[in-house]
Every structure is written in C-alpha cells, then in structure tokens.
C-alpha cells in the first residue's frame, strides 16, 4: 500500500488529449491554458537551442491543429511540403512559362483543397439547380482554418514567383512558419516576408513585449469570452434564429448585438494570437483597428481584418489590374475582389451577396471621391466625419444581416420586421428584460469608440506591473469568464472559414 494513493482514470486522461469533434481546442478552453503553461516551460528551456525549439513549436502546432480538426492535420502537411518544394523549383527556374506553371501548381493544390472542402456542395447545388435536378449534399468535414493556412502558404509561393522574397532552404523552418499555432486556425494571415526573418533570430522577449502580450491576451479573452459569448447566447442567437417572433426594434438591437459580437469574437482571437506570439518572441501586424470608427467603407476595409483585406488587395485586386486600366475597370475589379472575398468566407449565396454589397459600395465610394475631387487618404472632420461614421456603421450592419443568417429568407424576414413592425415603445421593456446583455453591449461599444490613447495608457500600466501582478490579471479574468459562462465554450466564429 502506498502512502499517497493516486487515483487516475487513464481512459479519461486519454480522452482529454484526443481530438473531440464536439469540443475543438481554442484559446479560451481549459485544456489549452494548461497545455500552454507546460509548453512555455519547455519553450524557455530550449531558448538557446534554435533547431530544437523550432521543432518543438512545430510539433506542438500540429498537435494544436489535430485537437481542432482531427486527422485532417495531414492537409496542413500536404500544403507545407508541396509549396516548399514548388518554391525551391521556382527559384531554380528561369523560364517565364515554367515559373508560371509552378505557381499555377501551387494555386491548384491550395485552391483545389478549398474547392473540395468548402465549395463541393455549393457548386453541386448550383449545377443541379441549373439542370433542373436535385442534389444530395455530401457529408464533407470542413477542416478548421483551411482558408487561412492555404492563403498564408499561397502568399509565400506568389512572393517567390514575383521574386520579392527568397525561398527558405529548410523544410522545418517553412513548416514552422505555416503551422505556427497562434495564427494557425483563424488568422491573422501572416505574410512570409514579415515572419520568416524572425524565425532564426535569438529568442528575446523584452519586458514591453511580455507586458503587451499579457494585455492583448487579457483584452482578447475579455472580448471573446465575456462580451461576445454572453450577448450571443443570451440575445443575438434568439433574434436571428426566429426574427419573425420579435418586433422590429428587437431585430434591430439583435443586428447591433451581432455587429459587436463578430467584432469582439474575431478581434478578440486576433488579440490573443498577437499576444501569445509576443510571449514567444514574435511580432504580428495589427489585424483590427477600431473598424466601426470608419467614416467610409474604404476606411472600414483598412481597419477590418487587415491581414485579409491587404491579402485580397495585393494578390487578387492588383493581379486583376487594380486601378491601372481605367476607372471603369477599377470599379469592376473592386466588385470582383469583394465577390470572391465573400465566397471565401463561406460557400453560400448570402455571403456572395454580402461580398457584392461591399464591392459595389467600395466602387461607389471611389466614384464619389473622384466626383467631389477628394484625394486618396483624405479624412473628414467634425460633423461630416460623424455623419460618415453613422452611415458606414449602419451599412456594415445591414450587410451583417446577410452574413449572419443561414438563408436569404431569414434576412428578408428580419428586414421586413425592422421596416414594417418596428414598435419602438417596446424598447424600455426590452432593456429591462435583457439589462445584462445591453449593459455589456454598451460597455463593448464604449470601449470600441474610446480614444486609442486610453488603450495605450492601460497597456503601459500593465507593462509596468510586476510579473506576479500580470499573472494575477490573467487569473482574475479567467475566474470572471468561468463565473459568467452559462453554456459550453463557444467556438470562434471564424473557425468555420
């Protein structure tokens, strides 16, 4: 008999570390927090062993993806190996057509995977509809984040093709870049030119990097797990699931709630990804910059999901000709780019329509700038800017209706309720019934529209804290999250893309 008997259910322990399709691992899950602590211990021990550290992080990243998508982690390996060698061949090839063939092969592999996993059922339904036949949807699992790591890998091969970067000589280094777990499953899309130079640099996490990392992780967790999840489960989902059961004012509040939800969800994930990367000694570019402060739709796309919008601009819009072939062609290129951007989000007519709305709006804004003689990048001020922010915000909210709803009919029903059954007298009753939700919505919007200098000042305060105080900030926030959680952890919205 042992003095300290340990009763461990090995089968249960095994289940914890195996992939669970009902509970994919995310940053706000308990299993990740415990694994990350253990990961950091080993990471610090390997800080002076470059190759061993890179190998360890790569293996952990693959395990992280396995916990998110199961056996489909082999797709990540397929993209990594194929694009690595294609880039090598491209670098050794001088012939223009041979180089084009190699980059076309990379495009075929990456976009082929997207086409199968994301668009097979959509295209099958469209073809069947045109032919007057019925189509039975295939049971195809959508690997988490496939849109992100394929686009990231494509940026590498395209940049090598354009001779803007030199290809990596180490497959391990490239695997590290593509699979780096902070941004693997939901972005931001990290460009090779920005990340690769950091891989073999000495591990250095300054006090400022550590403090800023803790601040971003804490703020991201608060956005996601406190604001986004709570208003989603307790209000937004109810409205969008059955819009005809609610008045117009309730539907409108649901739309405002979703606008905040998707921002807090996705920017929260980006904050955590950037923060975790900082703790590991790596820098990511800003992915969200208070997008609802935008006074035009063009400004909105400079502030919203910056890594995607810049990717679409550099690799699609410019490839189509950009603004080099006249104004009419520029407007068409904008519409095509956003149409494909909408289709990238998800294979659905709702998303196609969402992309087209944004494309037409961008083209219209370019036309308006030309007609009024305003210069590129010129900002409005005062009442003019306030009016622009108000109009832009409500246009974006209008488009979110089609983005969020599962089908077109639900979107029409929601708009019909808003414009024909508004019933503003229910507002007081609504706020009283959902006062916690509206309090969080108010807090979320106030934080979003607060001056940037306030956030910077708070970040500096966290940076200046002793280590134990920083740890206490995270522990306290995790406790708050646990107390507020009324359901299972909600997956990040962009996990479906």
Brief sketch in words of this structure:
The chain has helices at residues 10-17, 30-45, 50-69, 73-91, 96-130, 146-161, 171-179, 192-199, 207-241, 248-279, 297-303, 306-317, 327-345, 349-372, 382-404, 408-420, 427-433, 435-449, 452-463, 467-484. It is an all-alpha fold.
Give me the secondary-structure topology.
Layout: H1 10-17, H2 30-45, H3 50-69, H4 73-91, H5 96-130, H6 146-161, H7 171-179, H8 192-199, H9 207-241, H10 248-279, H11 297-303, H12 306-317, H13 327-345, H14 349-372, H15 382-404, H16 408-420, H17 427-433, H18 435-449, H19 452-463, H20 467-484
Helix pairs in contact: 3-7, 4-5, 4-6, 4-7, 5-6, 7-8, 9-10, 9-18, 9-19, 9-20, 10-15, 10-16, 12-13, 13-14, 14-15
Low-confidence stretches: none
By DSSP (H or I, 4+ residues per run), the number of helices equals 20
Largest sheet, in brief, is: none
Shape: globular
Question: What are the salient characteristics of this protein?
Answer:
mainly alpha; 497 residues; 20 helices
Walk me through the structure:
It is a single chain. The chain contains 20 helices and no strands. It is mainly alpha-helical and 497 residues long. It folds into 2 domains: 22-199, no CATH class; 207-295 and 379-496, no CATH class. Helix 9 packs antiparallel against helix 10, helix 10 (248-279) crosses helix 16 and helix 14 (349-372) packs antiparallel against helix 15 (382-404). The longest helix has 35 residues, at 96-130. The chain is globular. The mean pLDDT is 86.
